[in-house]
Structure formats: structure tokens, C-alpha cells
Write a structure and sequence with these properties.
single chain; mainly alpha; Four Helix Bundle (Hemerythrin (Met), subunit A); 2 domains; flat
């Protein structure tokens, strides 16, 4: 278990550093997803399998969809079509795929180990998680929800493009025959 923990911790640190250092937001999101999956693997190794499942469902699933939606809002226009073609190259996906493959192989080895000493899961029911989230940590949950909503509204506002023409029929034609009168002195 110690080796698996250290390998997972190394993948987590490497993926998180790559999130911070990437200039392209889609590349950063790929590495962020790997980082969140490796956090789930750390929870699993520490015996909190329910927390690992919640990490995958909530963060690697729902929050990542929110981030992708925000990036899609910010990247509107014709020039992004060429940029998306560049993102679909295999070199972009090689790093995150390699790190995710390391985590997957590690998970398969841990689950298939027959001795049962790889991890000792703690019993945490969904009821206990819900009670702690909505009683003890209610203010934190509400603040996180408001922060995410503010981020989405801010991204939508930043990504909004000013349209000069709403429709081709509503476009005002410049008048060619109208000349400004010169002031009489």
C-alpha cells in the first residue's frame, strides 16, 4: 500500500503542477481532471471508498462539466475552430492519458489483490455524509454554491461579445447622398 500511495501522490503532484503551468485552458482542464481522479485514488487508498466515489462523481464529473461550459462560453468565434483542431491532436492527450493509465493500472492491481490488506475501507453511509454537509458544514456548502454561481455569471459576462448587428435585415445602411451642411460664417 505504501508504494501505491506514493505513486498516486506523485501523480497528483505532477498533474497539479501541470494544471498550474499550462497556458492553454483545455490542457489545464485535462490535467485537472487527472488530478481530481488521483485525489479520489488517495481517498480510496486511505480507506474512504465512499469519499473517493463522491470525489469522482462530484468533482471529476459535475465540476469539470461546469468548467468546460465556462471555457466554451469564453471561446466563441471562428478562430476557435482552428484552435479546436489543434487540441484534438494526440500530443495534447498523451500526458493526461499516461497519468490516468498509471492510476488505472494501480487501481486494478489494488482491487485484484487477494490478500485484502491493500486497504481497509471505513464504513461511511450516505446519510452520515448528508447530515454532516447540511448540518455541521451548511455555511461552507452554501458559500461554495454561491462562489460557483458567481464564477459562472462572471464568465458569462466576460465571454459576452458585443454584437453591432443583430440581424442582417436590421443592419442600417449608410446614407450616401446625405452630406453634412457646412456652417455659414
Amino acid at each position: 500500500m505504501d508504494i501505491a500511495f506514493y505513486v498516486t501522490a506523485a501523480v497528483t503532484i505532477l498533474a497539479t503542477l501541470l494544471v498550474i503551468t499550462r497556458h492553454n485552458p483545455v490542457h489545464a482542464l485535462l490535467y485537472l481532471n487527472v488530478s481530481l481522479l488521483s485525489h479520489a485514488m488517495l481517498f480510496y487508498l486511505l480507506g474512504a471508498s465512499f469519499a473517493a466515489l463522491l470525489e469522482i462523481i462530484i468533482y471529476a464529473g459535475a465540476i469539470m462539466v461546469l468548467f468546460i461550459f465556462v471555457i466554451m462560453l469564453l471561446n466563441l468565434g471562428k478562430e476557435t475552430a482552428e484552435q479546436e483542431r489543434k487540441w484534438l491532436k494526440w500530443q495534447v492527450w498523451a500526458g493526461p492519458s499516461l497519468l490516468a493509465a498509471v492510476l488505472f493500472v494501480e487501481l486494478v492491481i489494488l482491487v485484484s489483490s487477494s490478500d485484502g490488506t491493500a486497504y481497509e475501507p471505513a464504513e461511511v453511509t450516505p446519510r452520515e455524509v448528508a447530515l454532516s454537509l447540511f448540518q455541521v458544514y451548511l455555511i461552507g456548502v452554501e458559500l461554495a454554491a454561491m462562489l460557483l454561481m458567481a464564477a459562472v455569471v462572471g464568465a458569462a459576462h466576460i465571454g459576452r461579445h458585443k454584437r453591432l448587428v443583430l440581424h442582417r435585415f436590421l443592419k442600417e445602411e449608410p446614407e450616401e447622398n446625405v452630406h453634412e451642411e457646412e456652417p455659414v460664417l
